[in-house]
Design goal:
This protein is an all-alpha fold. The protein has 18 helices and no strands.
């Protein structure tokens, strides 16, 4: 940790050290804070689930948050579209020693982010009920609509600060300050964790309390990131920086498309799953949507770790690819791949052997009145649906790798293969075989996507070997 502090402090004006210091040391410096940042970001939603699930007066709460969840992921997707794209642009240009337009790229991302977030707030408030019904609060699941509307009020109000924080955080990391990016996320999340039990249990504010705690946490994260931009290392924002430059925006969006599609895929999966779960299971397993939401968010924590390792390495990969130091690119990705595989193995063991304990954390147990059918559904979801999470982690890493080195088409295709091209059709078709076959849509998709991603990787490394 002391070495990473010295590196960070000794490079106030440029990131040339990304091309000289051992990649293992650099990855520890960048990836650990990035992993923690993304885990913390995931905690904003999952902490609400834990406290709501253990509040006996909110029996439908987790299902209600599951219905609102796709809406929050849309905001996250747009924030990372701009933020990750701008960060990748900054790193590649630093490797090429082309940094004169960095401040314009950053300012453009922030301006567009603000405009988009305001539009989202207006649309979400005006069409709140139709949106929530589309996301799953209809038919048998319509009983969850009132709680979902209550929860969404403050969540929607926080869209501008949430989206802009998502734009800022990757840029702060690319600017050479990964620990600050992590702390900004951590402080906001800690505030959320403290306020959740106060608002839910002490103030008895229910779903509104959970959403308000999230709003305040996001506001603090946004404020800290905004303060960083006053004294950033490698660029200085001026008033003219915020005038949108659509050429620079186009470059950033090309590099951010993989992050956007990855998150958009989560939205699509969440909506399709909510609709299918409502049709297939709610009549027999009333809380199927809520239970699956918990499973999906635990899955999100693991994926955040895997994505964080590669995203943390993004400045290293982008800089060295831009500088044509291909051996360092290979060495960096090799370490990323090994760590990602270890993460996947640990997650697999946890999901296969401890699913009941994970469900109990969120209040789902027979002791709290849930049926054996509901608990067994959750156990099967962990063991089958997330059975090949190791492969999911690897393919996510491959997608972000291609994004980091400026190959948006490959990055986007790998990102979409698992979550949309394969998984969605399988999720719709497999229930015709049997209802439980729905859970096999994910592992089958993981295998097929891994085959394609492996081919892309082999061809890419062969191409740079011949250069």
């Amino acid at each position: 940790m002391q070495n990473s502090q010295k590196i960070e402090q000794s490079q106030p004006q440029d990131n040339k050290f990304l091309g000289t210091i051992k990649v293992g040391k650099l990855l520890r410096m960048f990836s650990i804070p990035c992993v923690l940042s993304l885990i913390i970001q995931a905690l904003y939603n999952i902490v609400d689930q834990i406290f709501i699930g253990n509040a006996s007066y909110l029996p439908l709460g987790n299902t209600a948050t599951g219905i609102v969840y796709p809406l929050t992921v849309i905001v996250l997707a747009l924030g990372l579209f701009l933020g990750d794209g701008t960060a990748a642009t900054i790193s590649i240009n630093q490797g090429k020693n082309q940094t004169e337009d960095t401040h314009k790229s950053v300012g453009t991302g922030l301006t567009i982010g603000l405009i988009v977030s305001i539009v989202l707030v207006a649309v979400s408030y005006i069409f709140c009920e139709p949106i929530l019904k589309f996301f799953g609060a209809r038919g048998e699941a319509s009983i969850f609509l009132a709680d979902a509307k209550e929860y969404s009020t403050w969540i929607i109000a926080g869209f501008p600060i949430f989206l802009l924080a998502c734009v800022m955080n990757p840029i702060v990391r690319a600017d050479g300050s990964p620990k600050f990016a992590m702390l900004a996320m951590a402080i906001g999340a800690i505030v959320n964790i403290i306020l959740d039990p106060i608002f839910i249990f002490v103030a008895n504010m229910g779903m509104t309390g959970a959403a308000l705690a999230t709003f305040i946490g996001q506001l603090i994260t946004f404020a800290l990131n905004a303060l960083y931009f006053i004294k950033s290392k490698n660029f200085k924002l001026k008033m003219k920086s915020f005038k949108p430059d659509f050429k620079l925006l186009g470059t950033s969006l090309k590099l951010g498309i993989s992050s956007f599609l990855t998150q958009l895929a989560i939205v699509i999966i969440s909506v399709v799953n909510n609709i299918l779960l409502g049709a297939l299971f709610v009549a027999t397993v009333q809380n199927a949507i809520g239970i699956f939401t918990v499973v999906f968010k635990v899955f999100g924590i693991v994926i955040s770790v895997a994505i964080g390792v590669t995203s943390g390495g993004q400045p290293i990969l982008g800089y060295n690819y831009g500088a044509k130091k291909y051996d360092r690119v290979k060495d960096t990705f090799k370490i990323i791949l090994i760590v990602t595989i270890i993460i996947g193995v640990i997650a697999t063991i946890l999901f296969e052997f401890c699913p009941a304990a994970l469900l109990a954390m969120f209040g789902y147990s027979t002791k709290r009145g849930y049926t054996l059918a509901e608990i067994q559904f959750g156990i099967n979801a962990f063991r089958i649906y997330l059975g090949f999470i190791l492969l999911t982690c690897v393919t996510k890493a491959v997608s972000i790798f291609f994004q980091a080195i400026g190959h948006p088409v490959k990055a986007s295709l790998v990102a979409m293969l698992r979550d949309v091209i394969f998984l969605i059709p399988l999720a719709v078709v497999l229930p015709f075989i049997s209802t439980s076959a729905f859970l096999w849509s994910a592992p089958i998709s993981d295998v097929l996507t891994t085959i394609v991603a492996s081919v892309y990787l082999i061809l890419f490394f062969k191409s740079i070997k011949s250069v």
